[in-house]
Amino acid sequence: MVFSFGKNICGGKEVKFMVFSIKSKTDEFWWGGAVSEGIAMPFGGVDYELDCTVNRTSNQFNALFVSNRGRYIYVDGGCIVKSDETSVSIFEPAGEVDFAEGFGDLRGAYRAAAKKHFFPSENTVPECTVLMPQYNSWVEMLRSIDQEKVLDYAEGIIGKKMPAGILILDDGWMTGYGEWTFHPSKFPAPEKMMKRLHELGFKVILWICPFVDKSIPSFSRLAEEGLLLRRPDGSVAERTWWNGESALLDMTNPKTRLWLKERLELLMKNYGVDGFKFDAGDPVYYSEDDVTFAPVSPNGQSKLWAEFAAEYEYAELRACVGMGGYPIIQRLSDKNSCWGNNGIASLIPNMIQAGLLGYPYCCPDMVGGGQEAEFGDGKTHDDELMARSCECAAFMPMIQFSYAIWERCSNPLIRKIARDSALLRLNYRDYFRNILSDCVATKDPMMRNMEYEFPGQGMEKIKDQFMLGGDLLVAPVLEKGATTRDVVLPRGCRWKYVPTGEIYEGGDKITVDAPLEVLPYFEKSK
Fold first, then answer.
1. What is the Cα–Cα distance from 252 to 229, expressed in whole angstroms?
2. Residue 374: which residues within 8 A CB-CB, separation 6 or more?
3. Three-class secondary structure of residue 309 per DSSP
4. 3-class secondary-structure state, position 108
5. Packed helices 347-356 and 383-393: angle between N→C axes, nearest 10 degrees
């Protein structure tokens, strides 16, 4: 390993920065950095660069890099990572660089880094968030959500024999950003609605964000009391985000956290709300020159938002920094409703990446994608894609629906696939429970790439199949029109192809039949 110093020209001034480099080993591959970069993993032996001095990826980040040769690099804060044919280098680390080796393989390196650097939690997320499906109002309602639509959506889920689970009321339920009360015209009787949703068997989560609109009644008081970010000139800072321009809560101020906690606890006390989807909080919405109650970087503000979320039993995050090991639901950013690397093909590698960064309780995006522009206005969707998306998520740590496949798809086979995918994990409830326990005991991810579970078998670059725990190999169909699936079976054990019961010897690449209604997966046997 080599420490050196370089120079940059920034704003006309010469700025010195530290560079940390290690020489690559033969056939060494690395994973890490940003969850959304999973599709580009692994790197090593090739030119690769990722700038996360500020996390700009709209998803989770952790400055941890783990190698299949039993080595890891951990940076306390953001950094730039670069690799080439001979080395891996860290530029501009925000904090201490910890490099360690001698841990044998990918699992060994990950466990060592997790033990030293992750939050030492002895808890997992609530079991029902894993065993039961999640449903989100977003795709069906966008911001036109209201009480009648929510109840119709929930009743439709149960009426079509889909299992109840977590119901997320997304953006639009409230009177305004920062005014976390039910919109009176949209939700005239929230107590009655919540009572019915609980009777149907749902846990109910409300969407919130750290943004505050000038139009809300409490804006002036929040500004006067120092609960909002300010510019260097003392004015309230406003930032452009996907819903326009808004101010931002200063999460470094204890009064801000107390104010927000009081609002959320009123929702829980008065209506029985079970938890919250803590959206936004992306570091890109903060600035290094923000005037705050206590000094903090943009990455630090994002982490404070996530740490606040972690105080709640039912909480979901989409963007955060340095939250490895926290027992909190993480979600991939919205995916396009399409085949290929912008859609369904990104789910497995990005979910694997999430696990290797310390976020084992991760939810793939909503089944079929969740991009606002691709839904609404009577737009139609690919039934085959919806079916394969259901199957792809069926054995991931969580499955989340939004598009009402059980109502909108006219083909009864597609509706059945959605229902079967939601119920499949219940057939393996004890297996899921054991994996959750392992997440606490060993810090192992729930969902693992093939190299993690079967080191040294040349499976480092496989991105379209995965292990759920140590005994289930899952190989979803990710190509339109495909009715067969090539699968690489690790050597050293036998594999039962569950859809047919056929037994295969490990060590071979096989082709199995996979018609639309079949999810290819295998159980390991001795």
1. 10
2. 336, 337
3. helix
4. helix
5. 20
Label the pairing between strands 166-169 and 203-208: parallel
Residue entry with tokens 């890099």: 65
Query: Hey, what are 441's tokens?
Result: 């005991």
For the segment 216-230, the average pLDDT, to the nearest whole number, is: 97
Distance CA 522, CA 156 (A): 33
Where would I find the beta strands (DSSP E) of 11-59?
Answer: 13-23, 30-34, 48-51
Cα angle 90-8-94, degrees, rounded to a multiple of 5: 40
* CA distances from residue 287 to 10, 247, 250, 291, 300 in whole angstroms, order as listed: 17, 13, 12, 9, 11
Determine the length of the chain. 526
Asked whether 270 and 187 are in contact (CB, 8 A), the reply is no
pLDDT one-digit tens code per residue, 159-190: 999 999 999 999 999 999 999 999 999 999 99
Secondary structure element (H or E) that encloses residue 338, with its range: none
CA distance 377 to 394: 29
Cα 348 to Cα 351: distance, rounded to the nearest angstrom: 5
Q: Which residues contact 235 (CB under 8 A, 6 or more apart)?
A: none
Other Cβ atoms within 10 Å of 77 Cβ, number: 19
Dihedral through CA 302, CA 303, CA 309, CA 313, nearest 10?
A: 150
Going along 80-119, which residue ranges are E strands? 80-83, 87-91, 97-100
Chain-centroid distance, C-alpha 463:
17
**Do residues 433 and 422 touch, judged by C-beta distance below 8 A?**
no
pLDDT grade for 78, boundaries at 50, 70 and 90: confident
- d(Cα 425, Cα 128) in Å, to the nearest integer? 11
Residue 215, pLDDT > 70, answer: yes
Helix (H) or strand (E) holding 282: none
Torsion of CA 430, 435, 437, 440, to 10 degrees: -170
Q: Yes or no: say if 124 and 361 are a contact pair by the CB < 8 Å rule.
A: yes
CA 510, 514, 519, 525 dihedral sign is negative
User: What single-letter DSSP state applies at residue 236?
Assistant: B
Q: Express the helix, strand and coil content of the chain in percent, nearest 5 each.
A: 30, 25, 45
| Angle, alpha carbons 128-130-131 (nearest 5°) | 65
